[in-house]
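Attaching the record inline, Q. Sequence:
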Amino acid sequence: MTSANATTAGVHMAEHFDVLIVGAGLSGIGAGYHLQEKCPGKSYAILEGRDCIGGTWDLFRYPGIRSDSDMFTLGYSFKPWTEAKAIADGPNILNYVRQTATENGIDGKIRFNHRVKRALWSSPEARWTVEAERTMGEGVTETVRFTCNFLFMCSGYYKYEEGYTPEFSGAADFAGRIVHPQKWPEDLDYAGKRVVVIGSGATAVTLVPEMAKTASHVTMLQRSPTYVVARPAEDALANKLRRNLSAKLAYHLIRWRNVLFGMYFFQLSRRKPERVKQLILGGVRMALGPDYDIATHFTPRYNPWDQRLCLVPDGDLFKAIRDKQASVVTNEIDTFTAGGIKLKDGSELEADIIVTATGLVLQVLGGLEVSVDGRVVDFSKTLNYKGMMYSDVPNMASAFGYTNASWTLKCDLTCEYVCRLINYMDRHGYKQCMPHNVDPSISELPSLDFSSGYVQRSIAKMPKQGSKRPWRLYQNYALDIITLRYGKVDDGVMQYS
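Structure, as predicted:
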């Protein structure tokens, strides 16, 4: 194997691996583990654009950063979560991911500061040529090339460089600081300050109670409400089982209990939305008392699970509101002013700091440019195969989690399937596998049926799903176990050559 440092007339020779993984976050480290376990003869490397392991869990540094799923399902299938808190904070999750990498020697396979820019497939050679921009320090970069037989994208689903901020009129007039949670400044001191957090999603409901601990007051300013559900941060049954059973057995029992409850709750939301709505609002009413205006501030215009639910551990958001440290205002912004935000109804919110928790910018495959035999791939014109591969794109998969359950549940299954696929190709002497639709009755559907703003802004650029299997995404873990872990790899849709 040629070393990456071997140069010919200043051009880096392409280093070859059987598999290249892009991204060293939760999914990428999981992919490394599965490859080592199930395809032990395969060489692989992980290309990571940043200088450390962790992806999302290292990128986001805002106060109170935590998971909005329990760690028994967000954790890896192969590594039991052993901390007391089921709803874990960011630093603990980051530590868990890094520990997994170190314990399994995966950290030695990572090439940091390698931002993957493009991938070119050649059918005659049956391999990808992957170009990455390597940061040499002080803004100096160079292009390095790798080749691989299989490309596994674990680069997440949103743009790391910037979050989404709408154009706010008068933003330049505001005398205080405007901060986006994705780029949290280390020097931001909000103690004793008046803070307005714009947004009503997972980030906003995390930030508000945490900042309220030291700020003079925090206002959550939302255009429309989100469903908010309180859950204990610690899982009493899980902690009891762990005291009496082996870590592994306890972990899998709790994992399955949580998976089955999540699936039941999701299906109930779809079948009896009004009943679930009243159940959720009843919980909010219990937390905030009968006099609070729940109709205005906590009753969304859509049904439960048309967007993701917001989870508040130990009801911390409700406690901050009850203690008058935080408040919710449901209104539209007219303009920013020197001293805060003027609303459409003419009232004004005073602020020293404004936090724009206004969402993410979604992107396909980390913004990678892909071409197959010289043809540039437009992913919005592709069909998503089994939630991980793309029609007429060979030897490439991507890890994409569930929208209605923990991200890692689907990523673990995706990794298992990719390993099955690679081993199947080896056994039969195939060099190329490519999903190809030959069924004219399949119609195209959006890949995500969420009404959330961040999804709707980007849905046109996303791959489509088909109207039936294997192009249909069911967002159902039990069904995916059957198809991905036990279903046929040679299903008549996947073409081998």
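The first strand starts at residue 7 and ends at 8. Residues 1-11 have pLDDT under 50 and may be disordered.

More tomorrow.
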